[in-house]
Amino acid sequence: MPLGSSDVTTDIILSTSGLTKEFGGFRAVNGVDLNVKRGTIHALIGPNGAGKTTCFNLLTKFLPPTKGAIVYNGQDITREQPAEIARKGLVRSFQISAVFPQLSAKTNVRIALQRKRGDSFDFWRPEKVLRELDEEALHLLDAVGLSAFAALTAGELSYGRKRALEIATTLALDPEMMLLDEPMAGMGREDVERVEALIRKVSKNRTILMVEHNLSVVASLSDHITVLARGQILAEGDYATVSKDPRVIEAYIGSGGGHGHH
Amino acid sequence: MADIASDETSGIPVAKTDRSADQLHRNVLIGLALLLAIAPFVAYPVFVMKVLCFALFALAFNLLLGYGGLLSFGHAAYFGMASYVSAYTAKNWGLTPEFAILSGTAIAAALGLVFGALAIRRQGIYFTMITLALAQMLFFFCLQTPRFTGGEDGIQAVPRGRLFGLIDLADDRALYWLVAAIFMAGLLAMYRIIHSPFGEVCKAIRDNEPRAISLGYRVNRYKLTVFVLSAALAGLAGATKAIVFQLASLTDVHWSMSGEVVLMTLVGGLGTVFGPIAGALVIVAMQNYLASLGAWVTVVQGVVFVICVLAFREGIVGVVAKAIKKPL
């Protein structure tokens, strides 16, 4: 990679330097320097126990790093609270589908749209003031194929639809960058294809960083791949480069593989 | 993705369910108001007032647990503290009942702000334990300051006074209308809170806190706000109770009072709008009409609680709501 040229630095939306996380002496993430280019789909892969999820939780501030720095859009966010980075346009998804199960699908999306009003501490106003957001909520549900399920509570939706709802909710914030934690985890083949198409669709004008086990999804979606093993970066590049790398093959076979196991 | 829409589209009423639920709730609220209007003519007013005070207390608790997802096991602190303040200011400062009740409510809200700010730093069972510990500290504070609380005797013979300095409340009927008005105001306030933009965020946090955080909500501020609102409503109930019974005592701040409000809420239906009212009615009625059983009332309550948890976890109103397939 042509590091050092001035173009590259402005093109980087999220970068880490020497990112390290220790759990009682065990280094789950060890000195990771990650650079995510603006407008790309970047995948973070690696065998089980490679530190992908820990790395992901560090980036989204759900865990504080032991050492190292995280820079987003030129701002140091290493010590920020998770809610604050969401307000800066860096929004994450979760491995287990993250919906509000007792609320309707429409309300799920509307909760995110409500953020546009700023903080919602107005407990004295009727819910009616939110109805102006309904149209946009239904539009977003339509975009992920859920318009028929708007009135259903999210808990009643099938697994694949919960994921679609989650994506609609995230899109409601119109984030500059989305971090997806194993978006295909636990999905059947049909759902995988749907969500894959959806991710491709929403990646326009956005940056996406995803952790994913399903290598065929990674191959078809991502522009750039970072392979982690034992908490460190093992290889980087596009799928063709990375998949031929003997160290990557060794890491996957050596650990029993993370390929397609769910 | 458009293809999934086609297979199950048939007749899911979208916004209709919202509207019909609103209509139903409005009807229930009107029904309750009518019931309150005739209650003093068919039942003993003091009994109804007791039910209303505890129903308001349970509504406050349900606001926190049912809609905020926060289980407080120290709600007696706000109920009892307000009861003391209301009784003290009415008796020793000669405040009119409306100001005595308001000052009790305000102190409960302030106490909720302090205790809540400490408790929300932890989650789940730790949150609950902190609320219990703080309430126990308040109990011992009340026990050790007889100059303010009257110690074991409590504050007795609290004057009911004259509302706005005009209407004599010594008559049970006159007092009843005040209590009924306070109850309805509290119920409507709670109803508005859970159906406000703020209430929507609270429900989201209750359902999935990490997700609410990831959407950029500063969840602790919402938790603290709902905690203070709940403490204030619990205080309103306690302060009113002190005027009705002309008594504030250690029973009001005792941990068993915290337990009783959990029981009322669960029996009536956790997370339902009207459940706590039904729960309070059942528990208070049991205490009154089974009083001849003495200590056995506690055993009966325990049995009711076990049956409730085992057989119908949704509570009385929860079961009804399920049967008619509409939220209540």
TrEMBL record, chain A:
Protein name: Amino acid ABC transporter ATP-binding protein
InterPro entries associated with the record: AAA+_ATPase, ABC_AA/LPS_Transport, ABC_transporter-like_ATP-bd, BCA_ABC_TP_C, P-loop_NTPase
PROSITE patterns per the UniProt record, alphabetical: ABC_TRANSPORTER_2
Molecular-function GO term, any one: ATP binding
Origin organism lineage: Bacteria, Pseudomonadati, Pseudomonadota, Alphaproteobacteria, Hyphomicrobiales
Top-level taxon of origin: Bacteria
One GO CC annotation: plasma membrane
Alphabetic keyword roster: ATP-binding, Nucleotide-binding, Transport
Domain ABC transporter: 14-255
UniProtKB/TrEMBL annotation, chain B:
Cellular localisation: Cell membrane
Membrane-crossing residue ranges in chain numbering: 28-47, 54-79, 99-118, 125-146, 174-194, 224-249, 261-286, 293-312
Keyword DNA-binding attributed: no
GO molecular function: branched-chain amino acid transmembrane transporter activity
UniProt cross-references to Pfam families, sorted A to Z: BPD_transp_2
Organism, scientific name: Bosea vaviloviae
Membrane topology: Multi-pass membrane protein
GO annotations of cellular component type: plasma membrane
Alphabetical keyword list: Cell membrane, Membrane, Transmembrane, Transmembrane helix
Protein name: ABC transporter permease
